[in-house]
Amino acid sequence: MSLAEIQRMMLKVTISPDLSDELFVRPEAAGERFGLEEEELRAARQLPRKVIESFQYAVAHKRLSKSALPFVRRTLSLLTYEQTKRLTRDFLRGRDMHQNEWAGQLTAFLDFAAAQAEPARARLFADITSFEKWMYTCATSPAPPQSNQAGYSVAPHVHFRAFPYPSELIIEERLDPELLEQHCGQTGYVLCCPDSGKIDLYEIDQACFELLLSCREPVPMEALSATADRIVRAYAMDKEPQELISELLEMNIIVSTEGEDE
After folding, report:
1. Closest by CA position to 160, among listed 212, 108, 111
2. How far apart are CA 100 and CA 103, in angstroms?
3. Cα–Cα–Cα angle for 245, 132, 56, rounded to 5 degrees
4. pLDDT, tens digit, 9 for 90 and up, residues 59-97
5. pTM (2 decimals)?
6. In terms of domain of life, where is this protein from (predicted)?
7. Around Cβ 253, how many Cβ atoms within 10 Å?
8. Helical axes 49-67 vs 102-115, angle rounded to 10°
């Protein structure tokens, strides 16, 4: 076996859980796969299994960090370090995960994490992975073309959604699972503004959420003002309806579409 072949084998072993498991559990099969003589096989097994497993996780985490970590950080924060290592290695089984493939596997990884959750925390993991999949979709999907219908609407780059947790808790990158479970069912509203593959998250209140819902499609200013007036009165807000609209226009969250002057 040439030096290049040995290096190739060791590289594969140190990044592939399937191959390292085979090396230690079914060494004869690993030897046959790589054409190892008995002495070479013994040499390959000298590296401690825990060292190989730690290296596999380190490589996977480094590759994940370069492409997709911001979109799984909240889910991983619900796990201990050892749980994260085990989850990552289990996910890698049967997958040849190179650096540029994490982004394409992100949704599958989040679904896998949710499926592996302990029953007591299945709801929490389902909700948080759903939140991070939404973030990823917001960040990677092309913005729809702005309508040419006259009126005012939510800007094409803006996304918003309600979640069953207070928004100030779930937009943090490191989550407190106990606190989240205490407040589960308390609706929070999140605004997402992607920027070059990254995203900014903002808390919004129910009044803002309802106003944005009313103008997903372009509406005349008269209709938008009437909705704002209803919302201001319903929530006893200390501001004028036009002030509520103007704030969103100034932040480019609501925009004027074709044929409307601000």
Report:
1. 212
2. 7
3. 150
4. 777 877 776 888 999 999 999 999 998 898 888 887 766
5. 0.82
6. Bacteria
7. 20
8. 120
Q: Is 210 exposed, middle or buried (0-12, 13-18, 19+ CB in 10 A)?
A: middle
Q: What would the pLDDT profile of 231-242 be if each residue is shown by its tens digit?
A: 999 999 999 999
Distance CA 67, CA 134 (A): 17
Helix (H) / strand (E) element for 40: namely helix 38-44
Write down the residue that tokens 């803002």 correspond to.
Answer: 208
Return the half-sphere exposure (C-beta side, CA atoms, 13 A cut-off) of residue 234: 11
> Cβ–Cβ contacts within 10 Å for residue 259, how many?
10
- How far is 166 from 173, CA to CA, in rounded Å? 14
Task: List domains and CATH numbers for the chain.
Answer: 142-256 (3.90.930)
Q: Which string of b and e fits 25-53 if b means at least 16 CB within 10 Å?
A: eebeebbeebebeeebbeebbeeeeeebb
